[in-house]
Amino acid sequence: MWTWFYRLASPPSVYRIAAVATPWLLAGALLAIAYGTIDGLAFAPPDYQQGDAFRIIYVHAPSAWLSLFGYMVMAVTGAIGLIWRIKMGYAVAAASAPIGASFTVLALVTGSLWGRPMWGTYWAWDPRLTSELILLFLYVGVMSLRSAFEDPARGDRAAALLAVVGVVNVPIIHYSVQWWNSLHQGATVAKMGKPEMPGSMLWPLLSMMLGFMLFYAAVLSMRVRGEVLNRERQSAWVRAAVE
To answer: Second label for 218, Cα 20 to 30 Å away, from 22, 55, 95, 180?
Structure first.
Protein backbone atom coordinates (compact mmCIF):
# COMPACT_ATOMS: atom_id res chain seq x y z
CA MET A 1 0.00 0.00 0.00
CA TRP A 2 2.74 2.47 0.96
CA THR A 3 4.67 1.60 -2.20
CA TRP A 4 1.60 2.52 -4.26
CA PHE A 5 1.20 5.74 -2.27
CA TYR A 6 4.80 6.83 -2.80
CA ARG A 7 4.59 5.93 -6.49
CA LEU A 8 1.42 8.00 -6.88
CA ALA A 9 3.10 10.92 -5.09
CA SER A 10 6.16 10.83 -7.35
CA PRO A 11 6.80 13.98 -9.44
CA PRO A 12 6.04 12.36 -12.85
CA SER A 13 2.75 10.91 -11.57
CA VAL A 14 1.68 14.19 -9.97
CA TYR A 15 2.55 16.08 -13.15
CA ARG A 16 0.54 13.72 -15.36
CA ILE A 17 -2.49 13.65 -13.04
CA ALA A 18 -2.53 17.45 -12.83
CA ALA A 19 -2.29 17.77 -16.60
CA VAL A 20 -5.24 15.43 -17.16
CA ALA A 21 -7.40 16.93 -14.40
CA THR A 22 -6.97 20.63 -15.24
CA PRO A 23 -9.29 20.97 -18.27
CA TRP A 24 -12.05 18.93 -16.62
CA LEU A 25 -11.85 20.99 -13.46
CA LEU A 26 -11.96 24.24 -15.44
CA ALA A 27 -14.98 23.08 -17.43
CA GLY A 28 -16.85 22.08 -14.28
CA ALA A 29 -15.95 25.38 -12.60
CA LEU A 30 -17.21 27.38 -15.58
CA LEU A 31 -20.55 25.57 -15.64
CA ALA A 32 -21.13 25.79 -11.88
CA ILE A 33 -20.14 29.45 -11.63
CA ALA A 34 -22.22 30.37 -14.67
CA TYR A 35 -25.31 28.71 -13.21
CA GLY A 36 -24.74 30.19 -9.76
CA THR A 37 -24.17 33.68 -11.14
CA ILE A 38 -27.23 33.72 -13.38
CA ASP A 39 -29.55 32.10 -10.84
CA GLY A 40 -28.23 34.13 -7.92
CA LEU A 41 -28.34 37.52 -9.63
CA ALA A 42 -31.38 37.15 -11.85
CA PHE A 43 -33.75 34.68 -10.19
CA ALA A 44 -33.04 34.55 -6.45
CA PRO A 45 -35.48 36.82 -4.58
CA PRO A 46 -34.23 39.82 -2.57
CA ASP A 47 -33.59 39.23 1.12
CA TYR A 48 -36.39 40.47 3.34
CA GLN A 49 -33.95 42.54 5.43
CA GLN A 50 -30.95 43.25 3.21
CA GLY A 51 -32.70 43.54 -0.14
CA ASP A 52 -30.46 43.03 -3.16
CA ALA A 53 -27.32 43.80 -1.13
CA PHE A 54 -27.30 40.20 0.09
CA ARG A 55 -26.32 38.98 -3.39
CA ILE A 56 -22.65 39.65 -2.65
CA ILE A 57 -22.88 36.46 -0.59
CA TYR A 58 -22.50 34.51 -3.85
CA VAL A 59 -18.89 35.73 -4.06
CA HIS A 60 -18.11 36.42 -0.41
CA ALA A 61 -19.13 33.10 1.14
CA PRO A 62 -17.32 30.87 -1.40
CA SER A 63 -14.22 33.08 -1.16
CA ALA A 64 -14.22 32.86 2.64
CA TRP A 65 -14.68 29.09 2.49
CA LEU A 66 -11.83 28.70 -0.02
CA SER A 67 -9.56 30.89 2.10
CA LEU A 68 -9.89 28.29 4.89
CA PHE A 69 -9.83 25.28 2.60
CA GLY A 70 -6.71 26.52 0.80
CA TYR A 71 -4.94 26.95 4.11
CA MET A 72 -5.93 23.45 5.23
CA VAL A 73 -4.56 22.02 1.98
CA MET A 74 -1.33 23.95 2.52
CA ALA A 75 -1.01 22.79 6.12
CA VAL A 76 -1.88 19.13 5.45
CA THR A 77 0.43 18.78 2.45
CA GLY A 78 3.16 20.62 4.34
CA ALA A 79 2.74 18.14 7.20
CA ILE A 80 2.97 15.27 4.72
CA GLY A 81 6.26 16.69 3.53
CA LEU A 82 7.55 17.06 7.08
CA ILE A 83 6.44 13.64 8.34
CA TRP A 84 6.87 11.36 5.33
CA ARG A 85 9.56 13.35 3.48
CA ILE A 86 7.43 13.45 0.34
CA LYS A 87 8.72 16.30 -1.82
CA MET A 88 5.44 16.72 -3.64
CA GLY A 89 3.80 17.63 -0.34
CA TYR A 90 5.96 20.75 -0.27
CA ALA A 91 5.20 21.43 -3.93
CA VAL A 92 1.43 21.33 -3.37
CA ALA A 93 1.76 23.49 -0.25
CA ALA A 94 3.77 26.06 -2.19
CA ALA A 95 1.23 26.01 -5.02
CA SER A 96 -1.74 26.42 -2.68
CA ALA A 97 -0.39 29.39 -0.70
CA PRO A 98 -0.89 32.22 -3.26
CA ILE A 99 -4.28 30.87 -4.33
CA GLY A 100 -5.53 30.75 -0.75
CA ALA A 101 -4.12 34.22 -0.09
CA SER A 102 -5.99 35.55 -3.14
CA PHE A 103 -9.28 34.09 -1.90
CA THR A 104 -8.59 35.60 1.54
CA VAL A 105 -8.12 39.06 0.02
CA LEU A 106 -11.33 38.60 -1.99
CA ALA A 107 -13.22 37.52 1.14
CA LEU A 108 -11.97 40.55 3.07
CA VAL A 109 -12.79 42.99 0.26
CA THR A 110 -16.27 41.63 -0.42
CA GLY A 111 -16.92 41.41 3.32
CA SER A 112 -16.01 45.08 3.70
CA LEU A 113 -18.26 46.05 0.80
CA TRP A 114 -21.09 44.05 2.36
CA GLY A 115 -20.42 45.48 5.80
CA ARG A 116 -20.77 49.10 4.70
CA PRO A 117 -24.57 49.02 4.10
CA MET A 118 -25.20 46.46 6.86
CA TRP A 119 -23.00 47.79 9.67
CA GLY A 120 -22.42 51.37 8.53
CA THR A 121 -18.66 50.84 8.20
CA TYR A 122 -16.26 49.05 5.88
CA TRP A 123 -14.24 47.58 8.74
CA ALA A 124 -14.76 46.67 12.37
CA TRP A 125 -12.38 44.80 14.64
CA ASP A 126 -14.87 41.98 14.80
CA PRO A 127 -13.58 38.51 15.81
CA ARG A 128 -14.43 36.99 12.43
CA LEU A 129 -12.87 39.84 10.43
CA THR A 130 -9.80 40.06 12.65
CA SER A 131 -9.09 36.32 12.54
CA GLU A 132 -9.58 36.34 8.75
CA LEU A 133 -7.02 39.17 8.51
CA ILE A 134 -4.63 37.10 10.63
CA LEU A 135 -5.14 34.28 8.12
CA LEU A 136 -3.93 36.58 5.35
CA PHE A 137 -0.85 37.46 7.42
CA LEU A 138 -0.19 33.73 7.89
CA TYR A 139 -0.37 33.15 4.14
CA VAL A 140 2.05 36.03 3.52
CA GLY A 141 4.32 34.75 6.29
CA VAL A 142 4.43 31.24 4.84
CA MET A 143 5.25 32.51 1.34
CA SER A 144 7.86 34.96 2.64
CA LEU A 145 9.50 32.37 4.87
CA ARG A 146 9.80 29.90 2.00
CA SER A 147 11.61 32.44 -0.18
CA ALA A 148 13.82 33.71 2.68
CA PHE A 149 16.16 30.70 2.57
CA GLU A 150 18.80 30.15 -0.07
CA ASP A 151 18.37 26.40 0.40
CA PRO A 152 14.90 25.54 -1.02
CA ALA A 153 14.65 22.43 1.17
CA ARG A 154 15.11 24.46 4.36
CA GLY A 155 12.59 27.01 3.10
CA ASP A 156 10.06 24.27 2.45
CA ARG A 157 10.45 22.84 5.94
CA ALA A 158 10.25 26.21 7.68
CA ALA A 159 7.18 27.26 5.68
CA ALA A 160 5.48 23.93 6.31
CA LEU A 161 6.12 24.21 10.05
CA LEU A 162 4.61 27.71 10.17
CA ALA A 163 1.60 26.51 8.15
CA VAL A 164 1.02 23.60 10.56
CA VAL A 165 1.31 25.83 13.63
CA GLY A 166 -0.95 28.48 12.09
CA VAL A 167 -3.72 25.98 11.36
CA VAL A 168 -5.04 26.68 14.87
CA ASN A 169 -6.49 29.89 13.41
CA VAL A 170 -8.87 27.96 11.11
CA PRO A 171 -11.28 26.75 13.84
CA ILE A 172 -11.01 30.18 15.48
CA ILE A 173 -12.31 31.78 12.28
CA HIS A 174 -15.06 29.21 11.88
CA TYR A 175 -16.37 29.35 15.46
CA SER A 176 -15.62 33.02 16.21
CA VAL A 177 -19.25 34.05 15.75
CA GLN A 178 -20.26 31.48 18.38
CA TRP A 179 -17.47 32.05 20.88
CA TRP A 180 -17.60 35.86 21.01
CA ASN A 181 -20.07 38.68 20.46
CA SER A 182 -19.85 39.35 16.74
CA LEU A 183 -21.35 41.67 14.17
CA HIS A 184 -20.93 38.90 11.63
CA GLN A 185 -23.98 36.76 11.04
CA GLY A 186 -23.91 33.13 12.12
CA ALA A 187 -23.87 30.08 9.88
CA THR A 188 -26.83 29.67 7.57
CA VAL A 189 -25.65 26.73 5.44
CA ALA A 190 -22.85 24.82 7.25
CA LYS A 191 -24.82 23.99 10.38
CA MET A 192 -26.63 21.10 11.98
CA GLY A 193 -30.20 20.71 10.83
CA LYS A 194 -31.96 22.40 7.95
CA PRO A 195 -30.23 25.46 6.39
CA GLU A 196 -31.98 28.75 7.12
CA MET A 197 -31.80 29.95 3.49
CA PRO A 198 -34.70 29.12 1.18
CA GLY A 199 -33.91 26.88 -1.76
CA SER A 200 -34.18 29.70 -4.30
CA MET A 201 -31.22 31.40 -2.58
CA LEU A 202 -29.42 28.27 -1.40
CA TRP A 203 -28.99 26.41 -4.69
CA PRO A 204 -27.11 29.17 -6.51
CA LEU A 205 -24.91 29.60 -3.42
CA LEU A 206 -24.09 25.90 -3.37
CA SER A 207 -23.38 26.04 -7.11
CA MET A 208 -21.00 28.98 -6.59
CA MET A 209 -19.24 27.12 -3.78
CA LEU A 210 -18.81 24.10 -6.02
CA GLY A 211 -17.60 26.30 -8.88
CA PHE A 212 -15.07 28.07 -6.67
CA MET A 213 -13.85 24.72 -5.34
CA LEU A 214 -13.35 23.38 -8.86
CA PHE A 215 -11.65 26.62 -9.92
CA TYR A 216 -9.31 26.38 -6.93
CA ALA A 217 -8.49 22.78 -7.83
CA ALA A 218 -7.87 23.71 -11.48
CA VAL A 219 -5.53 26.59 -10.63
CA LEU A 220 -3.83 24.41 -8.01
CA SER A 221 -3.25 21.74 -10.66
CA MET A 222 -1.69 24.27 -13.02
CA ARG A 223 0.52 25.72 -10.30
CA VAL A 224 1.55 22.25 -9.12
CA ARG A 225 2.71 21.43 -12.65
CA GLY A 226 4.84 24.56 -12.62
CA GLU A 227 6.24 23.69 -9.20
CA VAL A 228 7.10 20.18 -10.36
CA LEU A 229 8.88 21.43 -13.48
CA ASN A 230 10.84 23.97 -11.46
CA ARG A 231 11.84 21.54 -8.72
CA GLU A 232 12.65 18.67 -11.08
CA ARG A 233 14.15 20.70 -13.92
CA GLN A 234 17.41 18.71 -13.82
CA SER A 235 15.60 15.37 -14.08
CA ALA A 236 15.70 13.33 -17.25
CA TRP A 237 11.93 12.89 -17.35
CA VAL A 238 11.39 16.70 -17.28
CA ARG A 239 13.78 17.21 -20.18
CA ALA A 240 11.97 14.46 -22.08
CA ALA A 241 8.57 16.00 -21.30
CA VAL A 242 9.70 19.46 -22.42
CA GLU A 243 11.15 18.09 -25.63
So the answer is: 55
Rounded Cα distance, 115 and 128, in Å: 12
Cβ-based neighbours of 149, under 8 Å, separated by 6 or more? 155, 158
Number of Cβ within 10 Å of residue 52's Cβ equals 11
Looking at residue 190, its pLDDT comes to 53
Amino acid of residue 174? H
* Count of C-beta atoms within a 10 Å radius of residue 239: 11
**166-214 per-position pLDDT tens digit:** 999 999 998 887 776 666 665 555 554 556 678 889 999 999 999 999 9
The rounded distance, in Å, linking the Cα atoms of 88 and 158 is 16
Q: CA–CA distance from 186 to each of 61, 174, 189, 190 (Å)?
A: 12, 10, 9, 10
